[in-house]
Amino acid sequence: MTYFPNVTKIKFEGKDTTNDFAFRHYNPEEVVEGKTMREHFRFALAYWHTMTQDGSDPFGAPVNQRSWFGETEMETAHNRVDAFFEILEKLDVDYFCFHDVDIAPAGESLEEFFANLDEITDHIKEKMDETGKKLLWNTANMFSHPRFNNGAASSNNAEVFAYAAAQVKKGLDLSKKLGGENYVFWGGREGYETLLNTDMKFEQDNIARLFKMAIAYGEKIGHKPQFLIEPKPKEPSKHQYDFDAATTMSFILKHGLEGDFKLNLEANHATLAGHTFEHELNVARNFDSLGSIDANQGDMLLGWDTDEFPTNIYDTTFTMLEILANDGLAPGGINFDAKVRRSSFAMEDLLLAHIAGMDTFARGLKAAAKLREDRFFEDLKEKRYASYKEGIGANIIADKEDFESLTEYALKNDNPQLESSHIELVKSKLNDYLV
Fold it and tell me: Binding of Mg(2+) 1: at which residues (predicted)?
């Protein structure tokens, strides 16, 4: 069965095309800074928002028009696999991501859930072999079910910890089966509501225990994907342990997980943490821990995770500047953790939304490459920190000074002369690269 009979494979046609089902800026074979766009982006589709999101919200029933529903949950799950790979093929996207509960119904027991996962991943493996599509990462949903009310690895209930461990073990088995390049942990409920009844250190130590078990199991089965932690500051947990990139890196370093774990950063999560996305990317990069990203954007007027498709060229330009400075994301990539708006309920909107996001990232890449070619930011920073290139500044950087010598210098030079940053001019010139 064909789920999008009126849409052929989407190709690059240039910015002057009038075809809505064409790329205007994303040309997968165009070379930028020595790599093709396909290689730079490693685009991936999120199974959850693409296949299971129904358009409902806290105030309204589902509105999305979808044609893959069958008479049973498993029939629907199989139909979704076929429809999903049709979308991957028509968008010419190489990678995909999923939670375990996205692809298969949970059933009445853990044993039945695992059997359902085995059956559906057999189908997925067949489609992967047929199309050449690859698994960027998978993960276990350990936040939706009521059993995870008080967390998963951080739960006060040891039986819940054991259940979470079983889900992660199965997730790693599936990752090996499907050749997954990364495995993500998102602590959806790994946090606390109040310290009145919470031992924060105990809970965080238990999370680290689960992570170390995952490392050990990966080594045991001969499958070592890049492990990723995805920070998010709130929603649903009031005080979430993986608040932002810096908090998560502190956890990684404290528990000796560096080298095995990097970060999977999401733009909308940065917004919720009160940061720009480029801030989060820069923090991770400074720790040599920028592993992969989830591409979306939030609504600045709303205080929750709206997961809109990325259409802001400023944001994608700054994102690509960090990714280029990181020498890419491989084995990570750019996963569209984004959902169509409630008013975009037609089947074809799934394709149109991804085209918009991919085109926006292509424009961001080209702008970022031009900024780097012209050394726009490099020259600004060199000028700003020029006082450290010679004299007392060079001595400070070379660790040739101490408090006594610097005090002596300051007493003789106690009227430092600052220069204006002219930041408004800088932003105005930046606009020339983006528009």
Answer: 230, 266, 294, 337
Q: In whole angstroms, what is the distance from residue 164 CA to residue 141 CA?
A: 9
* Residue 349 annotated as catalytic: no
Q: Using CA atoms, how far apart are residues 325 and 48, in angstroms rounded to an integer?
A: 30
> Is residue 412 exposed (0-12), middle (13-18) or buried (19+ Cβ within 10 Å)?
exposed
- Regarding the domain delimited by 31-373, which CATH topology (the fold level of the hierarchy) does it fall under? TIM Barrel (3.20.20)
pLDDT digits (tens, 9 = 90+) for 306-340: 999 999 999 999 999 999 999 999 999 999 999 99
Query: Which token pair is 264?
Result: 């999977």
The answer to whether the peptide bond before residue 28 is cis (omega within 30 degrees of 0) is no
Q: Which residue has the tokens 């300051």?
A: 410
Of 25, 40, 78, 99, the catalytic one is: 99
User: Is 294 within any annotated ligand binding site?
Assistant: yes
Cα within 13 Å of Cα(44), Cβ side: 28
Domain boundaries, the chain: 31-373, 377-434
Catalytic (active site) residue 122 = no
